Write the structure tokens for this entry.
Amino acid sequence: MKSGYLLFFDLDGTVLRNGKLPEENRKALIAAKDNGNYLVINSGRSKAYVPKEVLESIPWDGMICGSVYVQWQDKVLLNRTLSEKTLRAVLDYVSKKGTRLVMEGVEKNYSFGMPGFQIPVDDDMEGFLKSAPKVSKVTFLEKLDPKEVPNFPGLRTIFFKTYAEGIAEGYTKKTGMERILAETGIDREKTCAFGDSENDREMLAFAHLSAVMPEAPAAYDAFVTYRSTCARHGVADSLMKLEFISE
């Protein structure tokens, strides 16, 4: 069995399937840890948006959340939040367009156009901005026209089929991996990443070994190590095929 590796895991569509944590994945992650490997979340979610079940049922060694928050054990290595200028531009846009918005942070999550969801800021946007909120990421819940991107200073926008996400410019899932490698002194050749979607590209390409779920873009086959065909628990299947756990 492989040991001493840093294993980086996307959550949605990878560790989590349809929003749930399959028991097979949970057991496989714990087994990989017991075999002497290190488990790290590498999710597009902010820290405050990571499900409690995921944090409490798996013995994580570190986390990379929204590409801009990095923690190794109890030490925070990076915590980059969006500026007031960026948030103001985003809120001005969604208030004019009537677009629903989620703003994720390290400790709290906020929303616009979604009464009763998280902490709504519709009625006091100015007060919200003046409170200097620690927002790691914004998610536009309707399609965003790419032509609008220049109107959001300092925002790196990632487009999906029906929505778009935004984080601080200059950061990807690879950023946190590099920070953790520098902190631990572990060599890049002892890394493996697991993902399923477009925002996992940099993470998968950077890792020495990599595995993707069945629905990952076909283009990923050019550089990933293994593509799982297991729809329900692709993480467990991948950990076994890459010899981090046994059957």
